[in-house]
Design goal:
Belongs to the HINT family. The chain is an alpha+beta fold. It has helices at residues 33-38, 88-104, 141-146, 157-166, and strands at 47-48, 55-59, 67-73, 114-118, 130-134, 154-156. It is built from four helices and six strands, in the order αβββαββαβα. The structure holds zinc ion (2 copies).
């Protein structure tokens, strides 16, 4: 959908016809804007202090709420649909980092936040990223659509964990 997350630059159209081995299992993809941000190769994107090892935090360039951050693993990981049970600790860690970043920015009502992932194919960037929005009660009309709970294009972090817990076979 238009204006999905925009966390950066024009989608460096990742050719799907190029299944590079590193594209899912960690590592670095020089064509991926989030990989470059993680390595501080995107001077236009300021990283926020993030104490979680292996993760980076920064503001979404098209904020959908007064607070809108992205939490991104430094290593290239595919989108949330490709995650498995063993990724639950990672998702939990990303949620922790998201809450920390809100608190650091003086937003403390953790009942009024929305955290989640866009479900493929509604991701503009394939590198795994958690959207952290607050206050959830102040999402504008468009954001309410884009980050809508129980939609087929957005899954909250809690729902994703539940889904991973109940998933026994590979997708
Ligand atoms: Zn997104
Ligand atoms: Zn990447």
């Amino acid at each position: 959908m238009a204006g999905e997350d925009g966390a950066a630059a024009p989608e460096a159209a990742q050719p799907p016809a190029d299944p590079s081995p590193g594209s899912d299992g960690g590592g670095y993809d020089g064509k991926c804007v989030f990989c470059r941000i993680g390595r501080r190769e995107e001077p236009g994107t300021a990283l926020l202090p993030c104490e979680s090892e292996g993760l980076v935090c920064f503001r979404d360039i098209r904020p959908g709420a007064p607070h809108h951050y992205l939490v991104v693993p430094i290593e290239h990981m595919g989108n949330c649909k490709t995650l498995k049970k063993e990724h639950i600790p990672l998702v939990e860690k990303m949620m922790e980092a998201g809450k920390n970043i809100l608190q650091q920015n003086n937003f403390t009502d953790l009942n009024d936040i929305r955290m989640g992932f866009h479900w493929p194919p509604f991701c503009s960037i394939s590198h795994l990223h958690l959207h952290v929005l607050a206050p959830a009660s102040q999402l504008g009309f468009l954001s309410r659509m884009i980050y809508r709970i129980n939609s087929y294009w957005f899954i909250t972090a809690e729902q994703l964990i539940e889904r991973l817990q109940t998933e026994n076979a590979a997708s």
